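TA notes. Do not distribute before section.
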Amino acid sequence: GSVSKIKVILVAAKKDLIEHTIKLLEDSGLVPAVIDIDSFAVANAFGANFDFEKDNAYILADIGSRLTNINIISRDISYLTRDIEIAGDAITRYLSDKLNMPFDEAEKLKCEPDNKEAIIREATERALEGLFNEIRLSLDYYESHFEKPIEAIFLSGGTSLVKDIDKIFKDSLGIETKIWSPIKSVKVSKALLGKGLAEFASQFAVSIGLALRASI
C-alpha cells in the first residue's frame, strides 16, 4: 500500500535562554502566557490579517536591527524558516562609514533622511546585498523541493520603515514586495491609532502575533 508522509519542523532553544527571558518578564511584573518562535508569531499575525490566494506561497521577511527572519509559507504551512544576521544595523554602519559620522547619528539619518534619500537608498542596496543573496539561496532550496509559486514578499519589522525598502527588495529579487500591517484586521483603540500606531505598525508583527496566540 501507499505510505503517507508528513513534513515536520524541529525547533530547539537553549533552556537557559528561555529561563533568562522568563525571569526578565517576571522581574518586570509580567506573567508569560506563551513562548513562540519569531517566524511563527509573524506568520500568525499575517494569517490573522490576510487571506491566502489559492496555493500561492509568500515570503515573510521580518527585518529588525541585528537579524532578519524569513519564512516561506503557504496557507498555514511553513516550508522554510531561518534567521539571517544581516538587518538594519548593516545599513546604519554603511552610512556611518560613508559619511564619517557616529553610529547614533547615522541611525537617526536612516530614520529621518530629509534631503538625503539618495544616500539612504545606496546604503540600503549595498548593505543588504548579502541578505538578498541569502534569500536567493533559500528560494533556490524552496523551488527545488516544492512546486508552489512565490506570489510576493511581505516585509515587517523596524527596518521595513526605511524609505523605499520595498522597491529595493523588488528591484533586487524580482518579486513583488509589500509592507504589511499586522493590525489590518485587529481592533485597536482610537487612542493608540491617534498616537501614530498605524504608521509604525509593521514593526510590531512579532508582538501582535504572540498576543493573538495567547488569546486563542
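Switch to the second chain here.
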Amino acid sequence: RNSLLYKIVSLWVVNIFLIIANTKMTDAFPDKYPQYLSLPVGAIITVFLAYQVYRLIRKPFDQAIANVENLAKGDLSIAQSETLENRKDELGKLARSIRKLSESLQEIIQGIQSSADDISALSQQLNSASQVLASGAGQQASSLEEISSSMEEMAVNIENSSANAAQTEKFA
C-alpha cells in the first residue's frame, strides 16, 4: 500500500471504473446522457486523474533530482520538505537516502578537515624540531671547527717546542 506503483495503479483502476460507469450511463440513458456529453466527462475524469498522478510524482521527483544535482556540484546543504521525507513510498525513501548521504558527506569532510588541521599542527612541530636540530648541529660544527683550530695551533706549538728542544740539546 505504501508503494508509488500501488497508488498509480489504484488511480488507473479508478479511472477505468469511472469510464465504464460513464459508458454504462450512456447506454442506459441515451436520451438524457448522450455520447456527446459522456465523452467529454470521460476525458475530464481521465485528465484529472492523470494530473493527480503527475502531482504525486513530479514535484517530489524534481526536488530529489535537484538535491542530487546540488550534491554533485558540492553543495551539501540539502533543503527538503518534511512532507516529502515523511512519505512512506519510494520517493520518501529516496528523499531520506539523499538527506543521509548529505549528512555522511558532511561528516566525512569534517573528518578530513580535522585530519588536515592535525597534520598542519604536526608539521609545524616537526618544523620547529628540525630548526632546533639544525641549530644544535650548527653549534657542534662551530665547536668542532674551534677544536680543530686549537689542535692545529697545539701541533704547531709542539713542533716549535720540539725544534727548540733539539736546538737546546745541540747547544748543550
